[in-house]
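Design request, tokens follow.
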């Protein structure tokens, strides 16, 4: 054993007599610590035991440093001796930087800092292999990196390809990936060697450092996962991969469409990969985009004909399946003329047309040239009104008060310079921006910036000028955004500013913090909540929430026409209706501000003092300094957090409480939802301030914890923000229900959808569910997918919300549900809102036994009665539910 670690070396260490000169402060124990220069096994073991004894007394200290450095100097081969000591440390497998093993290697690194040249001959290939073996037997990645660096394994990295393959064969994927990353051996391994196994084990974070340095593996991984998304049955295909690669400890709940699609989208954005890398994900996202467009067009009636036409064309593109789905879906919503138009536009074979569409053309062959999107565009909205409801009185919207000649499109360097020369002297501007909505992996890019004055509205064409004339964009930042003498009005300024900074790095001074920036959302809240402000006009439809359209209606008497909001803002030239929409969105801010100012003075409200307060309160989120967990806990304990009195003095049922839960209490939010409380839960990537916006727009109370409470409570009415105190989930639930004076009955439990928070359910029989399952299979054959949610953005792969139960149901249903009489669209396997019903998630055994099913109207999740309800009532909610 001693010869194994000693090695042959011409290193001439100092004698023990020189190395053991003691400082006055060194304890007497060191006088008895003999250094075994010839290293017989018994002498080395004795010295290591002495070292452990000293470690037990002194831990990391100058004493330990001196002992180790003297030993390194006395050893015939310091590299071999250090491996021997480290290997014999009992705490080598502890993942701690405070262990003896880590300290030995750390001190050896310091000792060799200026001796590497003279020690070079001591470092043999055999010792490098021993160092590799030692490093891979423990779990501390920092120690692994340190050993690899000290023993210069990267200089002979090719030697370790086979040892890494041995790790893979032993299913040590994490260690194999880490070693390949540190040694830069990317080209020797495929994604199936350890990247795919780590993904299936939900340990992608281990592989991210490997992927960061290898664009080739980034592409291959995303392509591999995207190909999996394209399979008819993802789980079956994943099982084949698991069996072929012999992967253990697989997180099967991550191998469904929803979490996988989120992962592919996140990776594509993180590594800025082109859409060609993930065609199946883009196909699914485009399907979702089409459903979304149809919903806005035929359910919400909020999408104008021109916007509908261009966005529908953009979405389906040259994809034959999507073109056919467009025809089928439009027809299913009672618009066969539109369906016929698109069928002829894309040359879809007639045998694929819906029956009534074929009959429509046979009755009048020329009808397809007179109806549809083209006719809608050219008829200036007349057909649109007729196709929706002829008996309804046309809605009157607020219009742009200036002549159209006052709208100036800035799309050249010359016009940009003229704009800068004009805007530098104005006292106030309204600012808005537009960007084209995307549902695929491509991120949103700024298309327009609208800057309105009292006489003109400038539309800056970012698509044409964004990458040009950086000095002019920098000038805009200095002249306008960094100039506190110009008041800049906006509505939701933070989002607009963030988009500008993301798309225009040369803009520089774009910020909504400090004086000069006025967010009308905050001004509205301040006036209404603190000063009982009375608007000139009442709500025409009793609407709630804080939208710009509603604020315009309260101030000016008419809402904004938002039919062009969801359109292709990157298309050039812009349509006249787009220019008017964009200009009015910025100009109305000036009109609203003027009305607020005049009305405030009439009501003796100190308007300008309030404006000053609002402008100085707009702050960007500040990064907190890193602290230890103990320090943070101590800080929270020492900070007095007192909730204001509850807004509910009388008991209220769970169904009447509306809550938004911060990211810090997501688990509590899920429990509140199970109790029947209308609960919005922030996603991991959302900022705490989103709570305030949602709470004020949707009339919800905020539930958070810790110091975040101090940041949020002052932006909502008194008693509408509660900081939970307990660390235990059940106690947190009791806290919140007690504070808001809420009682929960059995009828409340599971009365809301656990996925989307919806409260409307369609009740269907066993036979209808069978028909839906058959339709789902037919749709799956057409589109090759097991979609769960088609248009969700990418999120963290390890989020709890991503789990997709193989049983197909989270909770059972309870005693009462509000049944929607309109039922479902069996042929399309959709709810009346155009949402896909996930009938394929209902197991065959359940389908044969259960007589009644409940379908969420908003997300298509299927539920049925089961034992989960009674388990929850008798478990976590035992002390919560009342009779």
């Amino acid at each position: 054993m001693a010869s194994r670690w000693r090695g042959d070396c011409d290193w001439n260490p100092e004698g023990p007599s020189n190395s053991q000169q003691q400082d006055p402060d060194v304890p007497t124990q060191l006088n008895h610590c003999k250094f075994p220069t010839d290293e017989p096994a018994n002498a080395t073991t004795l010295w290591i035991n002495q070292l452990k004894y000293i470690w037990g007394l002194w831990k990391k200290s100058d004493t330990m440093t001196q002992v180790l450095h003297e030993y390194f100097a006395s050893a015939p081969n310091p590299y071999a001796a250090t491996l021997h000591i480290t290997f014999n440390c009992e705490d080598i497998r502890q993942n701690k930087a405070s262990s003896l093993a880590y300290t030995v290697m750390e001190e050896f690194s310091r000792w060799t800092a200026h001796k590497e040249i003279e020690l070079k001959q001591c470092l043999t290939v055999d010792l490098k292999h021993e160092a590799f073996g030692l490093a891979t037997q423990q779990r501390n990645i920092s120690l692994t990196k340190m050993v690899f660096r000290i023993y210069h394994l990267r200089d002979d990295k090719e030697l370790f390809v086979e040892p890494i393959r041995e790790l893979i064969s032993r299913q040590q994927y994490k260690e194999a990936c880490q070693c390949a990353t540190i040694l830069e051996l990317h080209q020797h391994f495929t994604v199936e060697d350890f990247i795919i196994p780590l993904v299936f084990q939900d340990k992608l974070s281990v592989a991210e450092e490997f992927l960061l340095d290898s664009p080739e593996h980034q592409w291959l991984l995303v392509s591999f996962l995207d190909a999996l998304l394209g399979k008819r049955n993802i789980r079956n295909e994943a099982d084949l991969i698991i069996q072929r690669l012999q992967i253990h400890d697989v997180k099967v709940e991550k191998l469904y469409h929803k979490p996988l699609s989120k992962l592919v989208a996140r990776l594509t954005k993180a590594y800025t990969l082109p859409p060609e890398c993930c065609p199946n994900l883009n196909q699914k996202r485009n399907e979702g985009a089409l459903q979304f467009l149809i919903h806005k067009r035929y359910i919400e009636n909020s999408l104008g004909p021109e916007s509908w036409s261009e966005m529908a064309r953009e979405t389906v593109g040259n994809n034959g399946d999507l073109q056919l789905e467009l025809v089928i879906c439009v027809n299913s919503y009672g618009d066969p003329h539109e369906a016929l138009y698109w069928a002829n536009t894309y040359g879809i074979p007639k045998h694929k047309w819906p029956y009534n569409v074929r009959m429509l053309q046979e009755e009048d062959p020329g009808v397809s040239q007179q109806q549809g999107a083209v006719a809608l565009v050219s008829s200036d909205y007349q057909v649109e009104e007729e196709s929706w409801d002829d008996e309804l009185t046309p809605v009157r919207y607020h219009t742009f008060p200036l002549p159209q000649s006052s709208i100036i499109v800035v799309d050249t360097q010359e016009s940009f310079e003229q704009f800068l020369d004009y805007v530098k002297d104005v006292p106030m501007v309204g600012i808005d921006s537009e960007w084209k909505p995307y549902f695929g992996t491509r991120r949103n890019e700024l298309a327009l910036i609208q800057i309105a004055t009292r006489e003109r509205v400038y539309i800056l064409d970012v698509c044409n000028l964004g990458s040009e004339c950086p000095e002019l964009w920098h000038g805009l930042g200095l002249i306008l955004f960094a100039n506190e003498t110009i008041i800049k009005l906006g509505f939701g300024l933070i989002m607009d500013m963030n988009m500008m900074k993301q798309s225009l790095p040369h803009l520089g001074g774009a910020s909504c913090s400090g004086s000069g920036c006025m967010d009308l959302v905050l001004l509205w809240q301040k006036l209404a909540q603190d000063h009982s402000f009375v608007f000139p006009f009442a709500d025409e439809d009793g609407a709630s929430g804080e939208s710009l359209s509603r604020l315009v209606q309260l101030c000016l008497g008419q809402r904004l026409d938002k039919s062009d909001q969801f359109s292709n803002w990157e298309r050039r030239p812009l349509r006249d209706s787009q220019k008017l929409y964009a200009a009015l969105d910025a100009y109305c801010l000036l009109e609203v501000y003027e009305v607020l100012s005049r009305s405030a003075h009439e009501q003796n409200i100190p308007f300008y003092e309030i404006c000053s307060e609002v402008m100085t309160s707009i702050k960007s989120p500040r990064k907190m300094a890193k602290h230890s967990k103990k320090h943070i806990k101590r800080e929270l304990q020492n900070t007095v957090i007192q909730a204001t009195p509850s807004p509910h003095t009388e008991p209220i049922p769970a169904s009447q409480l509306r809550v938004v839960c911060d990211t810090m209490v997501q688990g509590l939010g899920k429990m509140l939802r199970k109790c029947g409380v209308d609960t919005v839960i922030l996603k991991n990537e959302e900022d705490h301030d989103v709570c305030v916006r949602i709470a004020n727009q949707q009339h919800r109370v905020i539930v958070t914890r810790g110091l975040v409470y101090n940041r949020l409570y002052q932006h909502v009415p008194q008693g509408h923000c509660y900081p939970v105190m307990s660390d235990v989930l059940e106690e947190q639930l009791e806290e919140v229900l007690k504070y808001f004076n809420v009682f929960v009955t059995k009828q409340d439990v599971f009365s809301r959808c656990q996925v989307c928070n919806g409260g409307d359910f369609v009740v269907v029989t066993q036979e209808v569910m069978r028909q839906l399952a058959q339709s789902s299979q037919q749709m799956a054959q057409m589109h090759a997918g097991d979609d769960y949610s088609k248009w969700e953005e990418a999120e963290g792969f390890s989020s709890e919300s991503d789990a997709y139960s193989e049983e197909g149901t989270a909770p059972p249903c309870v005693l009462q549900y509000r049944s929607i009489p309109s039922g479902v669209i069996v042929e399309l396997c959709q709810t009346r809102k155009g949402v896909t019903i996930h009938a394929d998630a209902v197991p065959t055994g359940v389908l044969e036994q259960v007589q009644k099913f409940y379908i969420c109207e908003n997300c298509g999740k299927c539920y049925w009665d089961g034992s989960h309800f009674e388990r929850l009532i008798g478990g976590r909610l035992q002390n919560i539910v009342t009779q």
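Comment from the thread starter after seeing the answer: thanks! Residues 761-873 form one domain.
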